[in-house]
């Protein structure tokens, strides 16, 4: 079953270094989608002035956001376990940026709890703003981090800023579809418009990001590969599906399309990077992967634990399926 080729471990014809490269980026995609709709709801929260509608926004994500956030820990843990040298390089090089991500996530988590503690208008205004800052800041900074990772830069490149904005727009589209599912009345009725506009902004930002990436000789050729072109075309088609589904009152399909766009975005980053996993140093997946038997034990453990985690999430979403009660609060 197992074959050792130089430093590479192969199972059933698949190199475990390649497998874990896919798995790590898969964890990132799952987080950006699942917690992405929570972030999107936080951004939409800023656009609603009615207190009851804001309570509905908080109630809609209440059972889910802390569970969805676990996938960021899974992503970081998977990167550390499979590619420890890459984890060390990225987290040391982007130390302040990742602390910013942590700070915004803490703010996003604290704000709803404090928002509900007092009926004071000033108090709720302050914590409402904190909730919005956390909900918008976290995906923006994660997008910047992902762009910097791809480009192999230490500072903040223009392309990375555009990727950060694109992630925020994509999250708003997912959040709009999610609120259309979970709420009723005027709030739900206005969500398709929010989602369509956010999708248009996302696709426009993707075009800008691709132009900026194409200016880099090392990425220009990769962008013209068949897989990269297919992912870009697929994103556009999924954007069309989202718009049609949102306008037709099919929020499940719209939410699924936003998930597809998220997966395509992360997959595009992975495709442009592969076989390198640390672009600044040129370290490849084969060079960065932990050795045998550690990678084999890691794979066996993941094969056992990931289905259990997915089962938990299936139970969670089933238990809290359907629209929230009109009087429900966080």
Structure, explained:
The chain is mostly helical and 330 residues long. The chain has a single domain, classed as Formate dehydrogenase/DMSO reductase fold, CATH 1.20.1630. It contains 14 helices and five strands. The strands form two sheets. Strands 1-2-3 form a three-stranded antiparallel β-sheet. A two-stranded antiparallel ribbon has the order 4-5. β1 and β2 (8-11) form a beta hairpin. It comes from Halorussus caseinilyticus. One of its GO terms (cellular component) is plasma membrane.
Number of DSSP strands? 5
Query: Any idea of the CATH topology?
Result: Formate dehydrogenase/DMSO reductase fold
CATH architecture: Up-down Bundle
The rounded Rg comes to: 20 Å
Poorly predicted tracts of residues: 1-6
Number of helices: 14
Strand order of the largest sheet: 1-2-3
**Based on helices, strands and strand pairing, what is the structural class?**
mainly alpha
Biggest sheet architecture: 3 strands, antiparallel
Tell me the β content.
under 5%
SSE order: EEEHHHHHHHHHHHHEEHH
CA distance, first residue to last residue? 51 Å
Q: What average pLDDT do the residues reach?
A: 91
Number of domains: 1
In CATH, what is the class? Mainly Alpha
Helical content, roughly? over 70%
Overall form: globular
Tags for this model:
330 residues, Formate dehydrogenase/DMSO reductase fold, globular, 78% helix, two-stranded antiparallel sheet, single chain, mainly alpha
SSE layout and pairings?
Blueprint: E1 2-5, E2 8-11, E3 14-15, H1 16-45, H2 51-61, H3 65-68, H4 70-82, H5 84-93, H6 95-115, H7 121-151, H8 158-182, H9 185-214, H10 217-223, H11 226-247, H12 251-273, E4 276-278, E5 283-284, H13 285-288, H14 294-319
Antiparallel strand pairs: 1-2, 2-3, 4-5
InterPro entries: Cyt-d_oxidase_su2
GO cellular component, one term: plasma membrane
Pfam families: Cyt_bd_oxida_II (PF02322)
């Amino acid at each position: 079953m197992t074959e050792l080729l130089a430093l590479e471990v192969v199972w059933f014809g698949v190199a475990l270094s390649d497998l874990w490269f896919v798995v790590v980026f898969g964890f990132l995609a799952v987080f950006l989608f699942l917690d992405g709709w929570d972030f999107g709801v936080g951004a939409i929260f800023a656009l609603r002035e009615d207190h009851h509608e804001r309570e509905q926004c908080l109630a809609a994500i209440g059972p889910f956001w802390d569970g969805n956030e676990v996938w960021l820990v899974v992503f970081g843990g998977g990167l550390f376990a499979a590619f420890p040298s890459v984890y060390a390089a990225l987290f040391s090089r982007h130390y302040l940026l990742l602390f910013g991500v942590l700070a915004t996530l803490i703010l996003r988590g604290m704000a709803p709890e404090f928002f509900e503690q007092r009926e004071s208008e000033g108090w709720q205004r302050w914590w409402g703003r904190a909730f919005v800052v956390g909900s918008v800041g976290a995906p923006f900074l994660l997008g910047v981090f992902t762009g910097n990772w791809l480009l192999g830069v230490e500072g903040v490149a223009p392309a990375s800023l555009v990727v950060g904005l694109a992630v925020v727009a994509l999250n708003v589209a997912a959040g709009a579809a999610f609120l259309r599912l979970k709420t009723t009345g005027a709030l739900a009725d206005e969500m398709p418009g929010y989602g369509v506009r956010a999708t248009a902004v996302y696709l426009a930002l993707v075009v800008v990001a691709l132009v900026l990436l194409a200016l880099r000789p090392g990425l220009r050729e990769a962008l013209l590969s068949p897989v990269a072109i297919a992912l870009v075309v697929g994103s556009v088609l999924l954007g069309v599906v989202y718009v049609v589904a949102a306008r037709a009152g099919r929020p499940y399909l719209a939410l699924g399309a936003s998930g597809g766009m998220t997966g395509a975005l992360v997959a595009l980053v992975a495709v442009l990077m592969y076989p390198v996993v640390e672009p600044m140093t040129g370290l490849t997946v084969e060079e960065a992967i932990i050795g045998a038997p550690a990678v084999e034990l890691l794979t066996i453990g993941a094969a056992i634990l990931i289905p259990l985690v997915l089962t938990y999430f299936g139970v969670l979403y089933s238990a809290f399926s359907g629209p929230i009660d009109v009087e429900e609060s966080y």
